[in-house]
Amino acid sequence: MSALDFTPDEMMTIAASRALRNDDVCFVGIGAPSAACNIARLTHAPDITLIYESGTIGTAPDVLPLSIGDGELCDTALTTVPVPEMFRYWLQGGRITIGFLGAAQLDKFGNINTTVIGDYAKPKTRLPGGGGAPEIATSSREVYVTMKQSLRGMVEKIDFYTSFGHGEGGDHRKRLGIDTAGPTLLITDLAVWRPHPETKEFMVMSLHPGVTREDVQKSCGWKVSFAERLETTPAPSELELKTLRDLQARTKAAHARNGKNGKAA
Asked: Which residues are CB-neighbours of 206 under 8 A, at least 6 positions away?
């Protein structure tokens, strides 16, 4: 792969990282959100404050954590506070500008399922659950979501409401007394989406390079709406790709080394 060739996953991670600002205080989910947040920190947003659910504040991991309990987070944090303080003072206190989440299932209004696939009592698949995501979804000033597109993941109706997005659309959040903005951005491996200002249904604002409208619709379970002025997402720069690949290489090497030593990775 040459320097400026890139995969859909790399495009997704880099596009997501660009949405973050230097002055953001970001509550980070594990996985794709963590990769995006740390690429932002290592490129255009060096002063971003990254917070993880385990209570680590201002963390700057050299490798991507496998879980919120990864020692790398505490080792590189400015400070670590008790989890109740993290949620009550930081999150519910309105100090988090961006909650960055992933999803197993997502509907067109940004409602997220990370609990079960199928019937709750007899699920086809039991997922990791919500953790702190339900609180992040309602208490962060805004929520960004990143996920790979598939017909199984982007569905007309999610099987379980883990994290509330825009509910049934429109002013549903407001009617429930939730005064935060909710999901304002969705980044997939194919496109960048934002909610319609009135209906709150996610619509495609830009297609990643080489992606067509048909590609997006084929991997989405609802009828997709496209912006009138549909744009093309700028391709990753050489710096962005190098930063991401170096981070992934360090992560792979560190986890392999820990595994060989018999330690929990």
From this structure: 191, 192, 227, 230, 231, 232, 233
Active-site hit among 10, 53, 72, 240: 53
Taking only the tens place, the pLDDT of each residue in 23-51 is 999 999 888 999 999 999 999 999 999 99
Q: Which amino acid is at 9?
A: D
* Calpha distance 37→43 (Å, rounded): 10
Q: Which of 9, 5, 2 is nearest to 248 (CA)?
A: 9
Q: What is the pLDDT of residues 97-110, one digit of tens each?
A: 999 999 999 999 99
> Residue 39: how many CA atoms within 13 Å on its side-chain side?
29
CB distance 103 to 161 below 8 Å: no
Report how far Cα 188 is from the mean position of its chain's Cα atoms.
10
Q: CA–CA distance from 14 to each of 52, 54, 238, 243, 261 (Å)?
A: 20, 25, 11, 10, 32
Helix (H, G, I), strand (E, B) or coil at 125: strand
**pLDDT tops 80 at residue 259:** no
Helix (H, G, I), strand (E, B) or coil at 85: helix
Domains of the chain: 8-260 (3.40.1080.10)
Residue 261 pLDDT greater than 60, yes or no: no
Per-residue tokens: 77 = 């944090």
Q: Would the pTM of this model clear 0.85, i.e. be above it?
A: yes
- Give the pLDDT of residue 263: 40
Q: Where are the alpha helices (DSSP H) in the chain?
A: 8-18, 32-42, 71-76, 83-85, 133-139, 172-175, 213-218, 238-260
Structure tokens at 88: 């009550």
Assess whether 53 carries a catalytic annotation: yes
* Mean pLDDT, all residues of the chain: 94
